[in-house]
Design goal:
The protein is α+β, with helices and mostly antiparallel strands. It is built from five helices and four strands. It has two domains: 102 residues; 47 residues, no CATH class. The strands form two sheets. The protein has a two-stranded antiparallel ribbon. A two-stranded antiparallel ribbon has the order 3-4. β1 and β2 form a beta hairpin.
């Protein structure tokens, strides 16, 4: 196999790994709670997030093809590099199928409440407050940003607080 072909195959392998990693990392750096999100970047990140599983799988297939074609034509240290890049591409392809945001924004469990003097709540911290039948509960916005919905009971009645 000519040296130029090996060069292009190895370049394809490196670009496949870089592309698959990008498909996982880019949406995670843009879509974050409590971080200002520019609408253009958010739209791009959501598009990348949507196409990532199929695109990363295609990149993993290209990486595998490149490794197969290179395997007997390269030195042992180059084989090690090929395996490392193939593993990185495959791991990124697998991670692209995990909905990290679903894990990050998981439903909150049963809320636990303390008297205000027993909390570490700052005086200027924002909360969602619900008062019903002489009872009051406050849900910190910093917690609500990760869960968005809290199911609770106040005074024997079911309550849903959302943010």
């Amino acid at each position: 196999m000519p040296r130029a072909v090996r060069f292009w195959l190895f370049s394809l392998l490196m670009l496949s790994a870089a592309g698959a990693i990008f498909l996982v990392v880019y949406p995670l750096t843009i879509i974050q709670p409590f971080k200002r999100q520019d609408p253009v970047h958010l739209q791009r990140a959501l598009l990348v997030f949507r196409i990532a599983p199929g695109a990363a799988l295609a990149l993993a297939a290209l990486a595998l093809l490149a490794v197969v074609l290179l395997w007997k034509k390269v030195r042992i240290w180059q084989r090690v590099a090929c395996v490392i890049l193939l593993v990185l591409t495959s791991v990124a392809a697998g991670l692209s199928r995990v909905d990290v945001f679903e894990l990050m924004f998981h439903p909150a469990g049963a809320p636990k409440f303390l008297a205000i003097e027993d909390t570490r709540t700052a005086p200027d911290e924002m909360v969602i407050a619900v008062a019903l039948k002489g009872q009051a509960h406050a849900y910190p916005i910093r917690e609500m940003g990760y869960h968005h919905v809290i199911n609770d009971w106040i005074g024997g009645d079911p309550v849903v607080a959302t943010y």
